[in-house]
């Protein structure tokens, strides 16, 4: 199921490093197994990943589909069975207080590392810093659509640190 048996301790050192790890794990060719043990280590207990689903059951409707990290793995593997998938962060806005942080992370998805973007959106991410470092508590994402373009203020934020992104660690 995974390429390595252990998470990287550096994944938890900073918000930059945990976001880099997330994109590094989910990105790659369809034939290359992802490091799902590393992926699951990035999350706090009871964490959730939730996507906004549009036009189901009827055009114009929206709903949520929530996953525990383990169930997201099965969903994601079925989504990338036939296509390569690369996601990179293009901008980010972070708010932090004490041991909590929230980030709006704008992303773009491609079928090859340098190919054209087929999808853009925003990940709304909540994080918690425990004694061992940062962990994801919640990731909620929505994809850009013609009737809902990404606002300019989320396209040019300060930094991004993902594979191929602005500030890879």
How far apart, in Å, are the first and last alpha carbons? 26 Å
CATH topology: Nuclear Transport Factor 2, Chain: A
Main beta-sheet strand count, sense and barrel state? 6 strands, mixed
Rg over CA atoms: 15 Å
Integer tally of domains:
1
CATH class: Alpha Beta
What is the residue-averaged pLDDT? Answer: 89
CATH architecture: Roll
Query: Which range does the strand content fall in?
Result: 35-45%
Low-confidence runs:
1-5, 160-169
Strand order of the largest sheet: 2-1-6-5-4-3
Number of strands: 6
Helix-strand topology string:
HHEEHEEEE
Helix content: 10-25%
Number of helices: 3
Helix-strand makeup class: alpha+beta
Shape: globular
Characterise the protein shown here.
A hairpin with a 6-residue loop joins strand 4 (100-110) and strand 5 (117-130). The chain has a six-stranded mixed beta sheet. It has helices at 15-26, 36-41, 69-79; strands spanning 43-54, 62-67, 86-97, 100-110, 117-130, 133-143. It contains three helices and six strands; from the N terminus they run ααββαββββ. It has one domain (9-154): Nuclear Transport Factor 2, Chain: A. It is globular and about 45 Å long. The chain is α+β, with helices and mostly antiparallel strands.
Question: Which features would summarize this protein structure in a list?
Answer:
169 residues; alpha+beta; 6-stranded mixed sheet; 6 strands; disordered N terminus
